[in-house]
């Protein structure tokens, strides 16, 4: 139903839209790895289901589920969430799903990057990752969308944001990491982004969020809310290890303009109080050689920037930190006056190493 | 995306259309069991692919493939066949897929019968069959079609045909077999068919095709071509064990009328010369305890009635028997003057125990 296309989105007149542009729907994957998600992944499944149902109030959601969990997932999810069988190695649709591009004439295509579990044999988070690496093609095939497939270029969807208007934003920490594309120069990587995202300018933040196991994905520290408008994960505590990372990002962004020459409007959102893994949480995770351990006391890379923009809504992770949760909601109400801000308690998702943006992937309208 | 409905198609005004009514598409499953399909299922995959491509010239085809074979199947199939991941125990979409019903107002729903591998622990052909039994729900869910799900009633799609106009046809050999629904009377079984197929009359042939391992499915001996019009697998050889079975079917049909009171127009199609498993073919199949063996010299239940009616075409199995192959094509040209008759050499399919009708399932237009 769909075919691989050998040119590039740029050559064919396609661009990656901003997440705030209209969606046809949203894709997710059901979590089940017991060496990443505590207590047989049951608490995570509940949280993923809550995210799916919240999004499904605003746009169609497809949940991809393994053969083993198919019927169980269908029992938990309401009939408005479509459940399809799909194998994967974990549940990070943002990073393994296709990046969709559009041509302004009603056509939508996918980009199938190569995936190596956030670092392959250098510092990847698990092994193997072959099922994850097939998810993008399977999604495109199910939807009948043609796709571009990169032969060797490693990239996760969470390591890029676009404004849909010529600009992409990434972090040097991730895209220049030796575990991704060590044989390519920064210039070559930028050219690949220009070709496959249809952008003219790439903004390079130095870092992301402290201890982010993805090598500091951009989607955990900033989020494009509209062309020229970003939220930035921030802390006022100059002793917090996050401070220099957020400060460097702010300084960089204040000195930059986007592809259209706009100065950038930055809205700070303070990070929550530290989220530390409890002993009970740690003990609920199977300890397996080759998978990142979940150790008691470890700080999680919790950030409000890791939200999902749905049609008419923003699905926001919150952490039970009343002061900062409330401040995040208030900022987003100002930034998105026409969208409903839906808060979801997301501790069970961040315990697995990501958040709401990481577990979702929008499919734009053509 | 779809939900289970607790009433019945009859109660909701739905009926199973005739196969000759317009289709939205066709569903198939990729073969791979090495204990049923010789030489790692490679020859069968080639034949299934040929069937899929032939149908895809006339209506959309979705091929359901296991995780293991997904990429291999996508390599073999052209981009016009949609490939989706789905687990199953073998590849008989007719028998494990949903039976679709329509209400004449544009709505299509599925019927999810229970499946026990053609006989369960009594005389089933393999064990287990749990993945097969979930295929119908997965197909409906992928398409967003609501479905009726029978709690315990065993039925395979190949054991029923309908004329879309009030009549179903089945065999006593299969539907009354002790391995299906031994606790139900013939009257109770007939009532279930009336409720779930939306028919008023059930025609009961005594038998199907000699040595048919499905306990003589109706779809191997007759095919409804239009209301009141059937083809019947026939032999002129009174010494062939098929003769009394076909003769009894003919006598029965000549003495019956359908739900609308029509006399039935019967077109005989002579069966091919015996198809016997060769030594080489037998040796290509893994011998596994609990799966029906494929023994050298065994006669296969080869029949031309096991064709698939697509939009504008009939996809017909042929066996390299020039005389009978040609006669089958000629008869079908007369019966279907407006459809293209497409012959496919189907020895590799019958070696697995069925034929083109058994490996396909139409999804009607609403």
Task: Summarize the structure in words.
The structure is a homodimer of 366-residue chains. Chain A is an alpha/beta fold and 366 residues long. Chain A has a single domain (4-364), classed as L-arginine/glycine Amidinotransferase, Chain A (5-stranded Propeller), CATH 3.75.10. Chain A contains twelve helices and 17 strands. Chain A has helices at residues 9-12, 42-56, 70-76, 93-96, 120-123, 135-143, 172-175, 186-197, 242-254, 279-283, 322-335, 347-350; strands at residues 4-5, 23-29, 61-65, 81-85, 99-102, 108-114, 147-154, 161-162, 167-171, 201-205, 222-226, 229-234, 265-270, 308-310, 313-318, 340-345, 361-364. In chain A, the strands form five sheets. A four-stranded mixed beta sheet of chain A has the order 1-7-6-5, with helices on both faces. In chain A, strand 15 (313-318), helix 11 (322-335) and strand 16 form a beta-alpha-beta unit. The longest helix of chain A is centred in the N-terminal third of the chain and has 15 residues, at 42-56. Chain A is globular. The interface between A and B is medium-sized, with 25 and 25 residues.
CATH hierarchy class name of chain A: Alpha Beta
CATH architecture of chain A: 5-stranded Propeller
Overall 3D form of chain A: globular
Please, what is the oligomeric state? homodimer
Please give the share of residues in helix of chain A: 25-40%
Q: Helical region count of chain A?
A: 12
Main beta-sheet annotation of chain A:
4 strands, mixed
Q: Quick check: average pLDDT of chain A?
A: 97
Strand arrangement in the largest pleated sheet of chain A = 1-7-6-5
The count of DSSP E runs of length 2 or more, i.e. the number of strands of chain A, is: 17
Beta content of chain A comes to 15-25%
Find the structural class of chain A using helix and strand composition. alpha/beta
| CATH fold call of chain A | L-arginine/glycine Amidinotransferase, Chain A
């Amino acid at each position: 139903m769909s075919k691989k296309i050998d040119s590039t989105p740029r050559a064919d007149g396609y661009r990656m839209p901003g997440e705030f542009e209209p969606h046809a729907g949203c894709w997710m994957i059901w979590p089940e790895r017991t060496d990443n998600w505590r207590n047989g992944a049951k608490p995570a499944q509940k949280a993923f289901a809550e995210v799916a149902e919240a999004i499904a109030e605003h746009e169609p959601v497809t949940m991809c589920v393994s053969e083993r969990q198919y019927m169980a997932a269908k029992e938990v999810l309401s009939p408005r969430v479509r459940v399809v069988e799909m194998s994967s190695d974990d549940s990070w649709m943002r990073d393994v799903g296709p990046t969709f591009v559009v041509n302004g004439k009603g056509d939508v295509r996918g980009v199938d990057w190569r995936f190596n579990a956030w670092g392959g044999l250098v510092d990847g988070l698990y092994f193997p990752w072959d099922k994850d690496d097939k998810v993008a093609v399977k999604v495109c095939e199910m939807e009948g969308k043609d796709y571009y497939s990169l032969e060797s270029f490693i990239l996760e969807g969470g390591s890029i944001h676009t404004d849909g208007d010529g600009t992409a934003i990434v972090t040097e920490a991730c895209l220049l990491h030796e575990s991704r594309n060590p044989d390519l120069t920064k210039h070559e990587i930028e050219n690949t982004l220009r070709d496959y995202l249809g952008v003219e300018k790439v903004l390079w933040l130095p870092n992301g969020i402290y201890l982010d196991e993805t090598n500091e994905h951009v989607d955990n520290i900033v989020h494009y809310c509209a062309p020229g408008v970003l939220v930035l994960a921030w802390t006022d505590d100059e002793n917090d290890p996050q401070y220099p990372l957020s400060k460097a990002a702010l300084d960089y962004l204040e000195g930059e303009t986007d592809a259209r020459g706009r100065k950038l409007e930055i809205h700070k959102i303070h990070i929550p109080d530290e989220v530390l893994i409890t002993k009970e949480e740690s003990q609920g995770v199977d300890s397996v050689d080759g998978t990142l351990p979940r150790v008691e006391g470890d700080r999680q890379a919790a950030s409000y920037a890791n939200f999902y923009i749905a049609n008419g809504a923003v699905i926001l992770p919150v952490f039970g930190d009343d002061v900062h949760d409330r401040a995040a909601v208030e900022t987003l109400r100002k930034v998105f006056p026409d969208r409903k801000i839906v808060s979801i308690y997301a501790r069970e998702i961040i315990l697995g190493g990501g958040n709401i943006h990481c577990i979702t992937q929008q499919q734009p309208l053509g």
